[in-house]
Amino acid sequence: MTQEWWLNALWSVTPTIIIGILFGLIIYAAINGDRKVRRERANVEGEERARFAAERAADKTRTAEGE
Question: Residue 67, SS3?
Fold first, then answer.
């Protein structure tokens, strides 16, 4: 009788545990994906700012030389 009670309790809790694990994995994947996208976007923005600064410095040099 006691063994049946524990088996029933285990079968009752198992779906909740599985859904909780799946939910945790999905949230982890979403947060990790967002982190990677933000990091890549920051890298691209840094490259664009450097390129813009280099172009602006080149324009100032040309203006100073009298072109």
Answer: coil
Query: Containing domain of residue 62, as a range?
Result: 39-67
Q: Measure the CA–CA gap between 28 and 48, rounded to whole angstroms.
A: 30
> Which H or E run includes 39?
helix 2-65
- Considering the domain boundaries, does residue 14 fall inside one? no
Q: Which two tokens stand for residue 44?
A: 């691209």
Joined tokens for residue 21: 């694990």
Q: What tokens were used for 19?
A: 């859904």
| pLDDT digits (tens), the chain, 67 positions | 788 999 999 999 999 999 999 999 999 999 999 999 999 999 999 999 999 999 998 887 877 766 5
